[in-house]
Specification:
alpha/beta; ABC transporter transmembrane region fold; elongated; binds adenosine-5'-triphosphate
């Protein structure tokens, strides 16, 4: 049933793949026909017969030459068309598997490694289709036909050609596949390591430069690169070995066939005698058979690496997302949403102590809550629980009176406007960056929210206002500006629960006050969770809770903790 469903979903691609194989086969058979008819034509022409007796063969040579070219071109066209469609779907498939992992840190896979998988491994799977599967099918079919043709010309030659093909085509291919698989593991790991290190080095270049550590990192990068080069040499050896095996088998078989053929030609008269023309056809047919299988050893050496890539992609898809949607989610109730944490404990994978331990809190609709606590106390983890980015190990999150485990996590997220500690500025215009939160927001609304967050003077200085490009190739944005762009998105989203993680960490006192007042005003009617280290202005909130070592401090301790935080600030 599942196979039938999959076949239905991939019908277009399967059809194109079948077309590629058929056209490729037509090309290969034309190549075989071309060699056989050329051989016949050459040997026959050497006997100087009347030209008219050659005209059909001349036309056939022209036809096969044209058909071979067209067949090969068609195979590439249809094969790549099918493969590029598969590629696009495969990248989306990989991305869909990555998406739920992101908040939990990609399941421990490094960013550069993920990049290598999304780009390199997906391309390798494409090679498996275009460079391995199609030539293997067309090669095996046309080589079999070549054997049949050789057997038709001289029956004793058929087992020799078949044996040579099995040796040079099949056994050598199996050998290169096995050896290729072995080096593929090292190669894939080395390549992923190089990409991961380059990504990390580029991201951390300012720190590395500042501490004069760039040389050391560059040296270790070149060690990694050396391991990569060694693995590449291993792969080249396998490919070269495969080609040598094929060439030896082809040469040996050709010598055997020539010897057999010469013996048959020399035999005196009778039905068993081979004419010179047949002998030529036999030799060229043998060449054609090996020509058809020529791409196989190299393709199989690559297949080893390609299968490794496919396995890495499967492993990525097999990573468990931190939060699973329920099989039959309940709908979220309409109207204002209350949120509750009931003795929630969260432990990150590989961590012994929990990041949150038995934390309870009640957030009725419209409540303004400030969460304070020292670094590492679990404040950001609390925000991730509210966003359904992490699953509590014990306890539960209740949204609108329903256990969140019974709700679609995406539906819960739709209710939350979130500004992380370090919001990302995407490559694109300022307007596009803000409209991520609400695509239909008008230009006036975008400008108003920027001004309300104290970004008016910054906006005035931009070269082309809302159309100004931000990100790597555009206007550079400072830490405080980026943070306020994140808050602007959260305000524009107009959702019933607003969660802001350290919204004023990069801001001076005066701007901090402007931002706090704006947020409190703009989110009136919504519930607000304001996570902070800073204690100024907390009296504007309905409730202040403190976290320490993942636990919620008792209300009497909150005052004490406030004193500690205040002292640590001065
Ligand atoms: N993805 C993660 N994997 C493993 N441990 C994590 C992860 N994220 C956070 N932690 C750990 O969980 C604990 C709580 O982290 P959290 O980010 O929630 O603290 P915080 O109070 O927000 O700190 P800060 O004020 O410095 O941002 C810390 O010990 C942290 O190292």
């Amino acid at each position: 049933m599942r196979a039938a469903e999959a076949a239905g979903r991939w019908r277009g691609e399967l059809g194109r793949g079948a077309l590629a194989v058929s056209v490729g086969l037509a090309g290969q058979l034309s190549a075989l026909g071309l060699l056989a008819t050329s051989a016949w034509l050459l040997t026959r022409a050497s006997l100087r017969p009347p030209i008219l007796t050659l005209s059909v063969a001349i036309a056939a040579v022209r036809f096969f030459a044209l058909a071979r070219g067209l067949g090969r071109y068609g195979e590439r066209l249809a094969g790549h068309d099918a493969a590029l469609r598969v590629l696009a779907r495969l990248r989306v498939w990989v991305y869909r598997h990555l998406e739920p992992l992101v908040p939990g840190g990609l399941g421990g896979v490094r960013e550069g490694d993920v990049l290598a998988r999304v780009v390199g491994d997906v391309d390798a799977v494409l090679d498996l289709l275009v460079g391995v599967l199609v030539p293997s099918v067309t090669g095996v079919v046309s080589a079999t036909l070549a054997v049949a043709l050789a057997g038709f010309v001289l029956p004793e030659a058929a087992p020799v050609v078949a044996g040579g093909l099995v040796l040079g085509g099949v056994l050598v291919s199996v050998g290169t596949l096995v050896a290729g698989r072995r080096v593929a593991g090292t190669l894939g790991a080395a390549r992923a390591e190089v990409t991961a290190r380059v990504v990390e080095t580029l991201a951390g270049a300012p720190d590395l430069l500042a501490f004069g550590a760039l040389d050391r990192v560059a040296r270790s990068l070149s060690d990694t690169e050396a391991r990569n080069a060694q693995a590449l040499r291993g792969q080249a050896l396998v490919r070269g070995g495969g080609f040598a095996g094929w060439a030896l088998a082809a040469g040996g078989t050709l010598v055997g066939v020539i010897a057999l053929g010469l013996g048959a030609v020399r035999s005196p008269g009778g039905g068993a005698g081979l004419s010179g023309v047949d002998f030529g056809v036999l030799v060229f047919t043998t060449l054609a058979a090996f020509d058809a299988l020529a791409p196989l050893p190299d393709a199989m050496a690559r297949a080893g690496a390609d299968l490794g890539s496919a396995a890495r992609l499967r492993a990525l898809a097999g990573l468990e997302p931190p939060v699973h949607p329920p099989a039959d989610p309940l709908p979220l109730p309409k109207g204002p949403l209350g949120v509750e944490l009931d003795a929630v404990t969260v432990r990150y994978p590989g961590r012994r102590s929990p990041a949150l331990q038995g934390v309870s809190l009640v957030l009725p609709p419209g409540r303004r809550l400030a969460v304070v606590g020292p670094s590492g106390a679990g404040k950001s983890t609390l925000a991730l629980v509210l966003l359904r980015f992490v699953e509590p190990e014990a306890g539960r999150l209740v949204v609108g009176g329903i256990d969140a485990a019974r709700l679609d996590p995406e539906a819960v997220r739709q209710q939350v406007a979130y500004a992380p500690q370090d919001p990302h500025v995407f490559q694109g215009s300022l307007a596009a960056n803000l409209r991520l939160a609400r695509p239909e927001a008008s230009d006036e609304e975008l400008v108003a929210v920027l001004v309300s967050l104290g970004l008016g003077p910054w906006f005035e200085r931009l070269p082309t206002g809302l159309a100004s490009e931000l990100g790597e190739r555009g206007v550079r944005v400072s830490g405080g500006e980026r943070q306020r762009l994140g808050i602007a998105r959260a305000l524009l989203a107009r959702r019933p629960l607003v969660v802001l993680d350290e919204p004023t960490a990069h801001l001076d006192h005066q701007t901090e006050e402007v931002v706090r007042t704006t947020v409190l005003e703009a989110t009136r009617g919504a519930s607000l969770v304001w996570i902070t280290h800073q204690l100024a202005g907390l009296d504007a909130f309905d409730e202040v809770i403190a976290l320490e070592d993942g636990r919620r401090s008792s209300d009497s301790q909150v005052q004490g903790l406030a004193g500690t935080l205040r002292a640590s600030r001065h």
